[in-house]
C-alpha cells in the first residue's frame, strides 16, 4: 500500500498538478494539507471519479486538511483532541480496513509558529503537546498507524541546506526540535530517515530568493510510523521533481510503501 503526504498550498490552485501527480505515483492514500477551502468548496467529485473516498476538514482561505483513500473509511474524526476552543482546521484522522488488518492514518498541519516571540509560537508548542498526548493514546492500540503531514519542524542539521538562515525561525528553534524528538521517542519512526540518512533530502523550497533554483531547502514534511507500521515499511521517497512543475506548491509530495494488502 502506498501512502503519501503533500502540502498543496491551495487545492484550487494545485488541482492540475495534483491530478498529474496522482496519475504518476498512484497512491492508495493521500494526506493533504493547506487545502485552503471550506468543506463545501472541496471538489469531492474530482477525486471520487478517480476512485478515491474523500474526507475533508477545511476553512476558508487558510489551513485545511484532507484524506483521499482508495479504501472506504471505517471511521473519520476531525480536530486534534485537547482544546475544544481550537477552531483551526489542522487535523483529520481516518481508519480503513485492509486485507492485512486495520490501518489508522492522520493528516497533520502543525502550526508554523512564527514569529517566535508571540502567541503564535506558544500555540505551536501547545499543539505539539496535544499531538504527543494523542499519539501516546493511539500507540497504545498497537496497530499500524501513520501520522503524515507538514510538521513545520526541521528535525536536525541534516534536514536544512543553510542552517544559519533558520536558526531564529520557529521551525528550527531548540524547543521546537526537542518537542519533535519527544514525539518520535514515544515509539514512532521517521519513515524517510529510516531508509536514507543522507543530507540534501528536502521537501520545501521557498518561493522567494531563488530558493528552488539554488536548492536552498528544508525537510519539514514527515511520515511518522508506529512500530506495527514501521515493521512493514518497504520503500519510499520524495518527489522533488514536482517542485519544478508549472505553478508548483512550495512543498513536494513524500510517499512510502507499506506491506499491507489494500484489497
Question: What summary fits the major beta sheet?
Answer: 6 strands, mixed
Please give the share of residues in helix. Answer: 10-25%
The dominant shape is globular
Could you say what the CATH architecture is? 4-Layer Sandwich
* Fraction of residues in β-strands: 25-35%
CATH homology superfamily: Endonuclease/exonuclease/phosphatase
The count of helical stretches stands at 7
- Taken in chain order, the helices and strands follow as EHEHEEEEEHEHEHEHEEHEE
The whole-angstrom Rg is: 17 Å
The mean pLDDT is 97
Strand order of the largest sheet: 3-4-2-1-14-13
CATH class assignment: Alpha Beta
Count of β-strands: 14
Q: What is the structural class?
A: alpha+beta
Total count of domains: 1
Distance between the termini: 9 Å
Would you kindly provide a written description of the structure presented here, covering whatever features stand out?
- This protein is of the alpha+beta class and 263 residues long.
- The protein has one domain: 4-Layer Sandwich (Deoxyribonuclease I, Chain A), CATH 3.60.10.
- A six-stranded mixed β-sheet has the order 3-4-2-1-14-13.
- It is 23% helix and 27% strand.
- Helix 3 runs parallel beside helix 4.
- The chain contains seven helices and 14 strands.
- The longest helix is centred in the middle third of the chain and has 21 residues, at 119-139.
- The termini are close together.
- The mean pLDDT is 97.
- It is globular, with a radius of gyration of 17 Å.
- It has helices at 15-25, 44-48, 119-139, 174-184, 191-195, 211-214, 227-230; strands at residues 2-7, 29-33, 53-57, 65-69, 73-78, 91-98, 101-109, 145-150, 189-190, 204-205, 217-218, 221-225, 233-238, 254-258.
Amino acid at each position: 500500500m502506498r501512502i503519501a503526504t503533500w502540502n498543496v498550498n491551495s487545492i484550487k490552485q494545485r488541482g492540475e498538478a495534483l491530478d498529474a501527480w496522482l496519475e504518476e505515483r498512484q497512491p492508495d492514500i493521500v494526506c493533504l494539507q493547506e487545502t485552503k477551502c471550506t468543506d463545501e468548496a472541496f471538489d469531492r467529485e474530482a477525486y471520487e471519479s478517480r476512485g478515491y473516498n474523500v474526507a475533508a476538514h477545511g476553512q476558508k482561505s487558510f489551513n485545511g486538511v484532507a484524506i483521499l483513500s482508495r479504501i472506504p473509511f471505517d471511521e473519520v474524526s476531525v480536530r486534534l483532541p485537547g482544546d475544544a476552543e481550537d477552531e483551526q482546521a489542522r487535523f483529520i484522522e481516518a481508519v480503513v480496513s485492509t486485507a492485512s488488518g486495520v490501518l489508522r492514518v492522520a493528516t497533520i498541519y502543525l502550526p508554523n509558529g512564527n514569529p517566535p516571540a508571540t502567541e503564535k509560537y506558544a500555540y505551536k508548542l501547545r499543539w505539539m503537546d496535544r499531538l504527543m498526548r494523542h499519539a501516546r493514546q493511539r500507540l497504545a492500540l498497537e496497530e499500524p498507524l501513520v501520522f503524515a503531514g507538514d510538521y513545520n519542524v526541521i528535525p536536525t542539521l541534516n534536514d536544512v541546506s543553510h542552517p544559519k538562515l533558520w536558526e531564529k525561525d520557529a521551525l528550527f528553534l531548540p524547543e521546537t526540535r526537542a518537542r519533535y524528538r519527544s514525539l518520535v521517542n514515544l515509539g514512532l519512526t521517521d519513515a524517510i530517515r529510516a531508509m536514507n540518512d543522507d543530507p540534501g533530502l528536502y521537501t520545501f523550497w521557498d518561493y522567494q530568493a531563488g530558493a528552488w533554483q539554488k536548492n536552498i531547502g528544508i525537510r519539514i514534511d514527515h511520515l511518522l510510523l508506529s512500530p506495527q507500521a514501521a515493521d512493514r515499511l518497504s520503500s519510499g521517497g520524495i518527489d522533488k521533481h514536482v517542485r519544478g512543475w508549472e505553478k508548483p506548491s512550495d512543498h513536494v509530495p513524500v510517499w512510502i510503501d507499506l506491506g499491507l494488502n489494500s484489497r
